[in-house]
From TrEMBL, chain B:
It comes from Micromonospora chalcea. The keyword Nucleotide-binding does not apply. Residues 1-25 form the signal peptide. This is ABC transporter substrate-binding protein. Keywords: Signal. Residues 86-452 form the Solute-binding protein family domain. SUPFAM superfamilies: Periplasmic binding protein-like II (SSF53850). It comes from the Bacteria.
Length: 293, 541
């Protein structure tokens, strides 16, 4: 690691003034603005889904209709509105994405910080992290999801559990840099406990990295959820983008009803792309080597 | 470090996006260069969904396994276009000795592909092996057999411990006949894989396989049930397409000539504007149903079961899920068995309010006022891969809510579902019976406490039902037998042990510009790919 990173990172404990300019600088980038807008729209769709469209239910007379004024995204083989399904699917995807990524962040940060500060624990934590990273997660998720009865909660737990190692590794590497800094030694000399040093001194210095991780992990979680639902391992009572795709595949309508696969796929694409771009740009913006700090 | 992390994320996202979009696009692949070049038109290529998992015809077979194995090993009887038993290997059958002896008279012109004739000893050996090793579902049908005799090359006699009316039909249709001279040296037939050097007596016999891709079957040069003494098609090739979308595209592209699996109702439009592809419709030998687990305290209550039956809108299900292409049922006996179906029974009317009133009258309360009866909360288990049933469960859940019953959709991945069904871990089972060839066998395997067929999904243990069924089973007088079956039909309907949903029609698609002459039988187990049907197919000149 190069020296400028160290000096830059020594500052965070008192960042009050530069924060605003950082945020506005971040949001002023067109790509970021667009991504954040997409994320906001998705969030609005998710929160206000019941106001935007009725929950897809029952069977309608208009079966397999292409997109039209009455059905913006067309209808499926039961005559249900795909637009409504996509809107309600946004809920599931956002909830699972956020909850799973929060779970992963909490686990990953705790393990990463502990590994960075408590040296004896580091060896164990690193091995565990490496093993987890080396595991073929998709087959394992499939296996687990098949064994437990699939619901939004169990899916969140499964996806979150398999997503923490990447976070732990990121946080640990940053935490190692911080914990070697003079102000940490200072705190130790002043008699601060290990708990206090980790939570009050090191944690604030990795918060920005956590923000990035939340976004990136959430986008991965959304893909995992869609994948599991497509494989029939999703919550059968909750609409999800993966389930719309599964319905199309199962009823054999992929070749004749392109709208049934296109719109949920686009929704996945936009959400994942927006979250990833927002995350990576956030990372770039706070990187002193990029912004000349 | 930042760069590599970022690079990895970008790659991951790119892959994710590619995979997501790929879902809709990855249909067309498959090998376009096919082996059909050599003997072009007389190779009939059929799409199947999965590999053959078991080549031993005496054991229990999956639907796709039996498509291939039934073309190789003859049965005594077959089910014809009208769902009636017709002669196949057996010319005729009769009962002697007051119904205690079933006699089959065999044809003398069936030949194994190694040149030996098919004789009564082969039938005797097949039946005895099944009984000895308790193989497959036929073992339960041979329960009453005390001995099997083969007095001459074309006569087989089954001596029964008691008369059982549908014995000959059940065994005749279900039991595969295997070559004794090939299977006997194999020793323990419960372990015999039979996965190479096949000898069969059907119209086609497996020649070579490429796992995950194709199963090539060569013509048997002596098959008496084919118009010219042998099939007109020289080779049948099963090709594996796990996804139905891909299989339909393959048919449209000419990579295969017919689909073994039925075309989903929702997808029938795919072939609408294709004048080469024709659809053939056949009925079903089973039906879709909701079956209530009697071990559940609340489902053991007749009022609850009747109320649930009133909360299923079967008419709407038939018109939406099957696009109207299905038949409603009242009791457990399918209208296909017209002589046994109790036509006086009426299906429970769809009446959620009435169901609610019935449950209130039975003493169920909604104390917390959430619109649902407090105790009545059930899981509905189903197989996630069955498109129709998952839709049914979705609609059932919505309509039951109107009756104040909270249902949880427990449609899970197929293997999980099968395990749960086997262990009785469900409240309500939503599934489809595949093939019942006669009502007596059906009632025995679905309602006897001893559960001989392993499909008593009610987990019912009722002395009354046992007595009714056993009494009917021992009845040899035809009219009395029919009356007894109709009575059981009525009892089951009144008890609402199950809610029958529909008898669906299946549509099979084939390339009519290349092949013609299929003789389809009802059900998706038989369909267009029975041995008899394949033997009648001719290439279009």
């Amino acid at each position: 690691m190069s020296a400028p990173v160290l000096t830059e990172q020594a500052l965070p404990p008192a960042p009050a003034a530069p924060r605003r300019s950082f945020l506005s600088g971040y949001l002023r980038q067109p790509v970021v603005a667009l991504s954040v807008l997409v994320l906001l729209v998705m969030a609005v769709l998710a929160v206000f889904a019941p106001l935007i469209a009725d929950e897809p239910a029952g069977a309608g007379a208009d079966v397999l209709q292409p997109p039209s004024g009455a059905h913006w995204f067309g209808t499926d083989d039961l005559g249900q509105d795909i637009f409504a399904q996509v809107v309600w699917g946004t809920r599931t995807s956002m909830v699972i994405g956020l909850a799973a990524s929060l779970l992963a962040i909490v686990l990953g940060t705790a393990i990463g910080l502990a590994a960075a500060y408590f040296r004896p624990f580091d060896a164990v934590a690193t091995v565990i992290t490496d093993v987890m990273l080396a595991l073929p997660t998709l087959p394992l998720m499939i296996m687990l999801a098949a064994v437990v009865s699939p619901s939004v909660t169990t899916l969140t737990l499964i996806i979150g559990f398999f997503a923490w190692p990447e976070v732990a590794r990121l946080i640990r590497s940053q935490g190692l840099v911080i914990s070697a800094m003079p102000y940490i030694d200072g705190a130790r000399v002043l008699g601060a406990t290990g708990w206090r040093i980790v939570t009050r001194e090191i944690l604030p210095a990795v918060v920005s990295l956590m923000v990035v991780s939340v976004l990136l992990t959430a986008s991965r979680a959304v893909i995992s959820e869609a994948g599991l639902s497509f494989l029939g391992l999703g919550d059968p009572d909750a609409w999800s983008w993966g389930r719309i795709l599964l319905n199309a595949q199962r009823s054999g309508t992929i070749a004749i009803a392109w709208w049934q696969t296109l719109f949920p796929s686009l929704a996945i694409l936009f959400l994942v792309l927006a979250a990833t771009l927002a995350g990576t740009r956030f990372n770039d913006t706070r990187d002193p080597r990029r912004n000349g700090g | 470090m930042n760069k590599t992390v970022k690079g990895r994320w970008r790659l991951a996202v790119a892959l994710g996006v590619a995979a997501t979009l790929g879902v809709s696009g990855c249909g067309l692949n498959e090998e376009t260069s096919s082996s059909s070049g050599s003997s072009s038109d007389s190779v009939l290529r059929i799409g199947t969904t999965t590999d053959v998992s078991n080549f031993n015809p005496l054991q229990s077979l999956s639907k796709t396994d039996s498509w291939i194995l039934n073309a190789m090993y003859p049965h005594l009887l077959r089910i014809d276009e009208n769902a009636k038993k017709s002669p196949e290997l057996a010319k005729e059958y009769r009962y002697e000795d007051d119904g205690k002896t079933a006699v089959f008279v065999l044809r003398d012109d069936f030949k194994w592909t190694d040149g030996k004739p098919v004789v009564a000893e082969d039938v005797k050996f097949s039946a005895e092996s099944i009984m000895k090793y308790k193989l497959g579902n036929v073992a339960a049908k041979l329960t009453w057999v005390e001995s099997v005799e083969a007095p001459d090359a074309t006569t087989v006699k089954f001596k029964l411990s008691q008369p059982y009316a549908p014995f000959a039909e059940g065994v005749g249709f279900w039991m595969s006949v295997v070559p004794k001279h090939v299977f006997e040296p194999a020793g323990d037939l419960s372990k015999f894989a039979n996965d190479s050097n096949w000898v069969g007596a059907g119209p086609f016999v497996l020649d070579s396989i490429t796992k995950g891709q194709r199963y090539v079957m060569k013509r048997n040069e002596h098959y008496p049930l084919a118009p010219g003494g042998k099939a007109a098609v020289s080779q049948v090739e099963y090709r594996v397409y796990p996804d139905v979308n891909t299989m339909m595209l393959a048919l449209r592209n000419g990579d295969i000539d017919m689909m073994g699996t039925p075309v989903p109702v929702s997808a029938a439009k795919t072939f609408e504007n294709d004048d080469k592809i024709k659809l053939k419709k056949v009925g079903a030998l089973g039906f879709a149903h909701l079956t209530y687990n009697m071990k559940n305290k609340y489902l053991a209550d007749q009022d609850v079961r009747q109320a649930l039956s009133m909360a299923v809108d079967t008419k709407a299900i038939i018109s939406a899920v099957l696009q109207g292409d299905g038949q409603q049922m009242a009791g457990p006996i399918s209208p296909i068995f017209s002589e046994y179906d109790n036509t006086e029974l009426q299906p429970y009317p769809f009446d959620p309010e009435g169901a609610k009133a019935k449950l209130s009258a039975a003493g169920y309360k909604d104390a917390n006022n959430d619109g649902f009866f407090d105790e009545l909360k059930f899981g509905v288990a189903c197989d996630q891969s069955n498109a129709n049933i998952t839709r049914v469960v979705q609609l059932f859940r919505e309509s039951a809510a109107k009756a104040g019953v909270k249902l949880e959709n427990e449609c899970v991945e197929r293997n999980t579902f099968l395990t749960r069904t086997k262990n009785g871990e469900y409240d309500i089972d939503a599934s489809q019976w595949g093939v019942f060839d006669n009502p007596m066998d059906q009632l025995r395997s679905t309602y006897l406490s001893s559960n001989p067929g392993g499909i008593n999904y009610n987990l019912l243990e009722s002395a009354e039902m046992d007595a009714l069924i056993n009494d009917a089973a021992g009845t040899t007088d035809v009219e009395a037998f029919k009356t007894k079956i109709k009575n059981i039909d009525k009892v089951v309907h009144e008890q609402a042990y199950l809610t029958p949903l529909y008898v669906e029609n299946f549509q099979f698609a084939y390339n009519a510009s290349k092949f013609t002459g299929f003789v389809p039988s009802p059900s998706d187990l038989l369909g267009m790919v029975t041995a008899y049907s394949l033997a009648q197919v001719t290439p279009v000149k």
